[in-house]
């Protein structure tokens, strides 16, 4: 196949790379990395392997969380002077639980063009094949390692009406799933492990069953956890009326409506209007 080599305009190219299978590199990413003046890498040794496979000989420089603050002014200066620079991470899309946000922000603030060179990302790859609801999702990144902070995070996320997407390591999966089961209860979830690699695995079950499984079988490799959204309320008007009639015997209209809304998972405003109507009937 013949392709025109990409000619790069000056600017920063946020370039996605494979999350396992090297065949997932896009033509455009290879062209951009070949044509750039410089590649900023999370780990130059890691990116060297990718470059060797694709015959990319562009100069490489480290840009990671430990040197980012020091490196940024120099990089912005190069971009202002017209350089074409690619930013890559070890795997997937930069900025997605990876370095790059501050660089992109500062480049844009300085009026420098920033171009996405899209490609793999573990969160999207997991969502695309897991069979979890994918119309709405919330990417939560890595849960905190400390128990209290993790529990507080899960509590905040519990009511979100969307599939929750987390990154996790094999070593911490069991503890995270146990904490998720405590907060999210009996929701379904999918563990997507080693996506695009030799030992790729998708395992779906209720959270408590997954927690029990991975407590016994400590998993190896990289993992995405997808937690299904909370079940939709199936409360009917009849359920609401029955609940409110009982509650109004013991509490005010406002309290009855708030309790009904919380218990039945319906809008407070609707519960309040119905509570008022029932009260007026009396
Ligand atoms: N920027 C990357 C992306 O776009 O997916 C994510 C980088 S983050 C530092 C690494 C985490 O992504 C891993 O700990 C794991 O949770 C997830 N991950 C990366 N590659 C994966 C794979 N092949 N299978 C499952 N999860 C993966």
In words, what does this structure look like?
The chain is an alpha/beta fold. It has three domains: 11-120, 3-Layer(aba) Sandwich (Cobalt-precorrin-4 Transmethylase, domain 1), CATH 3.40.1010; 123-227, 2-Layer Sandwich (Methyltransferase, Cobalt-precorrin-4 Transmethylase, Domain 2), CATH 3.30.950; 237-281. Helices cover 44% and strands 18% of the residues. The protein has helices at 27-35, 44-54, 68-80, 101-109, 122-130, 147-157, 170-184, 207-216, 237-248, 253-264, 268-281, and strands at 11-15, 38-41, 60-62, 84-87, 114-117, 137-141, 163-169, 188-193, 201-206, 222-227. The strands form two sheets. A five-stranded parallel β-sheet has the order 3-2-4-1-5. Strands 6-7-10-8-9 form a five-stranded mixed β-sheet. α6 links the parallel β6 (137-141) and β7 (163-169). α7 (170-184) packs antiparallel against α8, α9 packs across α11 and α10 packs across α11. The radius of gyration is 25 Å and the shape is elongated. 33% of the residues are buried. The model has no long low-confidence stretch (mean pLDDT 94). Bound molecules: S-adenosylmethionine.
Features:
282 residues, alpha/beta, Cobalt-precorrin-4 Transmethylase, domain 1, Methyltransferase, Cobalt-precorrin-4 Transmethylase, Domain 2, 5-stranded parallel beta sheet, 5-stranded mixed beta sheet, 10 strands, elongated, binds S-adenosylmethionine
Task: Please write out the topology.
Elements: E1 11-15, H1 27-35, E2 38-41, H2 44-54, E3 60-62, H3 68-80, E4 84-87, H4 101-109, E5 114-117, H5 122-130, E6 137-141, H6 147-157, E7 163-169, H7 170-184, E8 188-193, E9 201-206, H8 207-216, E10 222-227, H9 237-248, H10 253-264, H11 268-281
Helix pairs in contact: 6-7, 7-8, 9-10, 9-11, 10-11
The protein binds S-adenosylmethionine.
């Amino acid at each position: 196949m013949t392709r025109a080599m990409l000619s790069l305009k000056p600017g920063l190219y946020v370039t996605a790379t494979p999350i396992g299978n090297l065949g997932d590199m896009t033509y455009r990413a290879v062209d951009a990395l070949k044509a750039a003046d410089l590649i900023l890498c999370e780990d130059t040794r890691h990116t060297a392997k990718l470059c060797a496979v694709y015959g990319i000989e562009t100069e490489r420089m480290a840009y990671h969380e430990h040197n980012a603050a020091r490196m940024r002014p120099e990089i912005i200066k190069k971009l202002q002077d017209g350089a074409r620079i690619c930013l890559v991470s070890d795997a997937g899309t930069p900025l997605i639980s990876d370095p790059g946000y501050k660089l992109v922000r500062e480049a844009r603030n300085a009026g420098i063009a920033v171009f996405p060179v899209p490609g793999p990302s573990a969160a999207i790859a997991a969502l695309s094949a897991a069979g979890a609801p994918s119309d709405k999702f919330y990417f939560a990144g890595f849960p905190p390692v400390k128990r209290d902070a993790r529990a507080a995070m899960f509590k905040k996320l519990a009511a979100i009406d969307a599939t929750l997407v987390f990154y996790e390591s094999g070593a911490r999966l069991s503890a995270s799933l146990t904490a998720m089961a405590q907060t999210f209860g009996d929701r379904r979830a999918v563990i997507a492990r080693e996506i695009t690699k030799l030992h790729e695995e998708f395992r779906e079950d209720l959270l408590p069953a997954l927690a029990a499984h991975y407590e016994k079988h400590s998993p190896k490799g990289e993992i995405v956890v997808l937690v299904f959204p909370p079940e939709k309320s199936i409360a009917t008007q009849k359920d609401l009326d029955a609940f409110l009639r009982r509650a109004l015997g013991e509490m005010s209209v406002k309290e009855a409506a708030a309790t009904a809304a919380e218990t039945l998972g319906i809008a407070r405003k609707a519960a309040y209007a119905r509570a008022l109507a029932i009260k007026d009937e009396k």
